[in-house]
């Protein structure tokens, strides 16, 4: 088990002057459309430009622990879910993906798998895309529907336009095929899922991925719902829990050790 973690350059392959081209470019012969993330306080993207904060450090630790797990088991795709809504899945997924792209020198695919209430497009400020819905409706390729974050080896696949039959694209065989494609083209695939006790889609993503992280918000997650979520998830795939919005006694020690000891520039 990974345990509880609370949040608060260059690649040698096909790098261009304006950013990274990557596996999608090599597959299609053309660069994917890149977009720039707009940092907004309410989105709490501490991994984007706040390297010295304790929140950013916690995401680095989480990414490192995932890499350690990879040495023990097959682990290329990770689903991120929760017990109930508003526990911080979007925040955790986005910051984890950004951290691994910035510091891991690896190619990351971030998927918004919550087709009914996905928020990652808003958090990342990504341009409109057909996303998962378009993948189902038009049969478009993942390469065409994925958008790259400017300057990072990070690609994003949004939910796309919501439709009455969107759930069809989340049939287990199609989800498994999607993740298999992603695992072939990227070093890591991170999927934000809906709450596991609310929508069956979360179980489909969890079953198809190599491992699952369960987000728990301190003081907000009912114990009975947490127990229910744990019962729903396959124990062998449960990587651990990420404790969100918790009071960290280590924060003052971190500030004394790191911030006060940082060399002056």
Protein described:
The longest helix is centred in the N-terminal third of the chain and has 17 residues, at 54-70. It is built from eleven helices and eight strands. Residues 1-30 and 252-259 have low confidence and may be disordered. A hairpin with a 4-residue loop joins strand 4 and strand 5 (154-157). The protein is of the alpha/beta class and 265 residues long. The protein has helices at residues 23-28, 46-49, 54-70, 89-103, 120-124, 131-137, 142-145, 172-185, 201-208, 223-232, 251-259; strands at residues 34-35, 77-82, 108-112, 147-149, 154-157, 188-192, 211-217, 238-244. An eight-stranded mixed sheet has the order 1-4-5-3-6-2-7-8, with helices on both faces.
């Amino acid at each position: 088990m990974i345990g509880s973690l609370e949040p608060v350059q260059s690649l040698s392959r096909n790098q261009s002057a304006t950013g990274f081209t990557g596996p999608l470019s090599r597959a299609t012969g053309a660069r994917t459309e890149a977009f720039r993330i707009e940092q907004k306080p309410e989105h709490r993207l501490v991994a984007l430009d706040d390297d010295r904060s304790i929140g950013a450090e916690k995401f680095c630790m989480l990414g490192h622990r995932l890499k350690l797990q990879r040495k023990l088991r097959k682990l290329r795709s990770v689903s991120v879910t929760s017990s109930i809504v508003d526990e911080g899945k979007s925040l955790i997924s986005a910051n984890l993906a950004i951290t691994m792209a910035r510091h891991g020198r690896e190619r990351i695919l971030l998927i918004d798998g919550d087709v009914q209430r996905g928020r990652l497009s808003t958090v990342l400020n990504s341009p409109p895309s057909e996303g998962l819905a378009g993948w189902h409706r038009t049969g478009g390729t993942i390469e065409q529907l994925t958008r790259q974050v400017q300057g990072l080896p990070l690609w994003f696949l949004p939910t796309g336009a919501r439709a009455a039959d969107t759930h069809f694209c989340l049939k287990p065989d199609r989800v498994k095929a999607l993740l298999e494609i992603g695992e072939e083209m990227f070093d890591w695939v991170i999927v934000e899922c809906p709450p596991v006790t609310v929508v069956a889609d979360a179980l489909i993503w969890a079953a198809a991925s190599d491992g699952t992280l369960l987000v728990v918000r301190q003081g907000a997650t009912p114990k009975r719902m947490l127990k229910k979520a744990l019962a729903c998830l396959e124990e062998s795939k449960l990587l651990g829990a990420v404790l969100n919005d918790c009071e960290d006694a280590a924060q003052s020690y971190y500030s004394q050790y790191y911030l006060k000891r940082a060399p002056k520039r």
